[in-house]
Structure formats: structure tokens, C-alpha cells
What does this fold into?
Amino acid sequence: MPPFSDRLAALRTRLAQEGLDGFVVPLTDEHMSEYVGGYAQRLAWLTGFQGSAGTAVVLAGDAAMFTDGRYTLQVREQVDSADWSFCQVPQESVAGWLAGHAPKDGRIGYDPWLHTRGWVEQTAAALAPRGGMLVAVAANPIDALWADRPQPSDAPLAVQPDDLAGRSAANKRAELADWLRGQGADALVLSALDSIAWAFNVRGTDVTHTPVALSYALVAADGTAELFVAPDKVGDAVHRHLGNAVRVRDKAEFAPALRALAGKRVAVDPERAVAAIFDALDAAGATLLPVRDPVVLAKAIKNPVEIAGHAAAQARDAAALVRFLKWFEQTAPEGGLTEIDAAEQLHAFRAETGVLKDLSFETISATGAHGASPHYKVTPESNAPILPGQLFLIDSGGQYADGTTDITRVMPVGEPTAEMRDRFTRVLKGHIAVATAVFPHGTTGAQIDGFARRPLWEVGLDFAHGTGHGIGAYLSVHEGPQRIAQPTYPGGGPLEPLRAGMLLSNEPGYYKAGEYGIRIENLMLVVDRPIAGGEVPMLAFETTSFVPIERRLIDPALLTPQERAWVDAYHAETLRRAGPLLDGDTRAWLAGKCAPLD
It folds into this structure.
């Protein structure tokens, strides 16, 4: 029996011992993070799934994996279909599946530190008609079985200086205090790790590729705050930076501190705070104000210093990407290159900048059929040779102290087919449609999303992920609340109106199962766009990523004159920005890639 089958059997035995008929295993942590530390990778330990979003449900005689369209192929490659059935969200939900599969009067366990209260209420309601109930466990049963589970990181916090943050932490806390007074609240719970990092101008290395520290915070209406973090992680420099208005307490004291808020009016985010936080505040007798964490929007609207830092990070990152693309074009046709080789070489080019802090996520280095899995993760077991006739897709990013990057390019190995060029050009047309969009204030990403799809829709094609996500400022590579997607796509729900200062990705794609994948991704800044004679204030996007788009994959006959002009102008700007950062030979190669289309 494979080891993952053993683990599933062991979990079922454990659940029976605890009087549970089932258990739900999400891929998140006690901060509702998308990317989590090794200690919280319970879903991967149980199933072998290596994606960044998913949930497992285990019953005595049944088990199901829930993933979105980004992982349709990957989950079937990594998780044993003999043990698990596969469900795709949003078409299917955990609550709906349990309603039809849980036993009558079943007791389904969940970890209240890994789910929101809204999820608990929805799932409990789905179980109720058959007499079922959700049971909050005091300890996660997987932790008792996971013998070599890593410990949470003990890495120290670091100060994000004001000349990179653009605002002092004291100024941010004062703004939060004003917000609290406007809400008539006494305290604000901050549980999202990037919110805490932004509000206190600190960074950490507790989550791979995301510069945050495992912590919680309480901010009071008088501007003082308590930061709950392992004491050994806070050195003298961080203490001095935080100042007397911030009391540092052990992370273990957070739950007792919630119980001390009896009689207080407490603002807490129902999407970002786990059910256990709500339960503790309820038990304490606090009055709950379920509102969105005010840091979320403030963090998303970048200030001028952050925008300048992002541009600087993009320039050095582009130079590393250009060096990589030249190396790849010259090396891949010789044979012997693998997906891991390519990922490591790109990492090396970024590291040679001398200021790379980390990658912004695990590089998606995917050749041939692997490219058809949008979030493919190469492993020593899956590592494939890069062969002639294939398309090679590389989606990657860097973390620099002044900014976070994320970019995807596709390169052919040898001569691409006519179909490949057609699909690539249609994706490019959608990318251009988004990049050149002009829209009124109040527009959401859902209204932009179709621009990216129309060239594919016209020939009966589509892609099963959103078109764009928000980007942090030396923070998470996936940042809300802004995104370009339909509400039914991953991260669904009401979409935020786009505002000047927001950063987003623009990444339409096309995926042909078993053969290849295509995605063209740049980052963009939302800006005000004055229009002479216009009567309505308008917004637009400014592209911030400048790396050549592979011309061998473009069919100019499919482009309109305006689209051709965009490509030529984009490449001219790419040469202007990246050229001065390159040696003569690489600059000459780039000049050829950036020449006007034939």
C-alpha cells in the first residue's frame, strides 16, 4: 500500500477513536493564509497534493479532494484515485458534498483554527437535514499522526524601513485608530500575516517565499497595539522600531488576550479570522463587529514610494529574465536540459542581482504537457527533459526589499506549430485588450475579465482561472482585495472596485491537456487617465513588467494594426528599460527580440 494510503487509513482509525465519522483538511494555517509554512502542510502530508489551494474530506468509507480549475490535471497526477474522488470548485463544494455523503447523524470534525465562522455555519447547515453536526476538535488529529512534522519557523523579524514602506508604522496605527473610532469600536483583531507585516512595517521569513512572521495583533482605538509573536524572534532593532506604543507578547498569549476583551466592541474580519477567534470573543462576552480588516484596502493602494520601489524591482528582475531567456534559447536546443535545470538557472540570474531576498513563489517550470497544468510544481520525480517541439512555460517572481515581481513567459524549443502560434496570439490579443482597457471609477475586475477571453471565446476556447490577482509591496505575490476574475473563479465572492495605486497581474492563458500550456503575464498599475473632453473620470492600466514576448510564437496576421502597434511599443520600451542593465552581447540579443514585428 502506498504511504499516502497508510496515512489515510491511520487518520480513519484516529477519527474512529475520537468518535468522529469524518474530518475536513483544508490547505491553510491559523491565519487563513494561501501560502503556509511547512508545519501547516497537512493536506500535502495526507494526500501528496502539492498545489497551493485545496481541501480534503475524509469519511469512514469515502474521501474526496476539492480543487479549482488550476489543478484539474495536477491533482490527478499527485493524488491516488484509488483512495480519493476528485471534485472541482466552485461547481462542487465541501458542504454540498458532505450533505450527500456524510452518514445520517454523522459527527464531522474540523479544526476551528483552520476555518472561518462562515464556513462552519454553511457546512453545519448542510449537515443538519440528516441529523449531522460539525464538531470542533481541541487538537488536529493529523498532528498526532505526523511524526516528523516541522516546527514553526523561529526566524527573527526584520524592520521594513520607512524609506521603502513610504509611511511610518506609527502613522499607519494612527490611521487604524481613527478608523476604529469611526466604527465605534475599542479594538481591532489583525490575524492576516501580511496585514500585520504592513501595519507594523516588519517582515519575516516564516512562510517560504512570503516575507511575513507568524503573529497576531490587537490594535486599540488610542493607537496603541499588542503584537503577539514568539519573543525570541524580536531583536533589539525591532523593539526600538516598534517603540513604547507597541507591547510585544508571546504568541501563546493571544487566545487569553481575546478572553480579556469582555465588554469591548471588537472589529474582526470574517474572511480572514478563523472561527476559533470568533468563538473566543463570543465566550468572553465581547461585542463583535464583523467587518473587513481595514489594512486590506490600505495595503492594496500603493503609495508613491512603493510604486517607485516596484518599478526598480521590475527593472532588475527584467534584466535577470532577459539573461535567462537568451540562455534558454541558446541552450535548450542542444538537449540535456530539464525543468529543474531551467528553474535553478533563472534563480541564479536573479541571485546575481545581489539584492534578491527570495523567490516570490515556487517557480513554475513546465515543459510540454506539464505546461497544461497552470500551477504545475516540478519535483525530482516529475522533472522532465525539455525536448524539441515542445513549448516551455516559466512563471516566476522575485522578492526584493523594494518590491515583489511575478511574470510568465513561453518559449518554443525548435519550430512551433501553426496551432501553437494561433493559440499564443489569441492569448496575446486578450492580454493587450486588458492592458489597454480604459474604464470608469467603480469598475470591478469582473467587468474587465471578459476582455482577456474574447479572442479565445471567438473560436470556442477558454481558460479555467482568473485573469489577474493583486500584488504586494515586498509582501504576498497574491494580494487582495483587487483581482480580475469572475466571482465563480478561485478567490471568488464580491469583487473590489479597482482604484488608482493598485497593482494587478494580467495573465490570460490557454491549456491543451497532454500537450502544452500558454500564459502571458505582466504586472500592471491602476492609474488615473484624464481624457480631453471626457465627462466621466476614468482609470487605466500601466504595464510595469518589461520582458520580451516571444516573437516566434506571434502570428502577426491575427493582430489588428492597433495590436501590432502595442507589441512594437512594448518591445521598444522593454529595450529602453532593460538594455542599459545588460552586457553588450545580451543587449544585442534583446534588440533582435524587440525589433518591430515583420
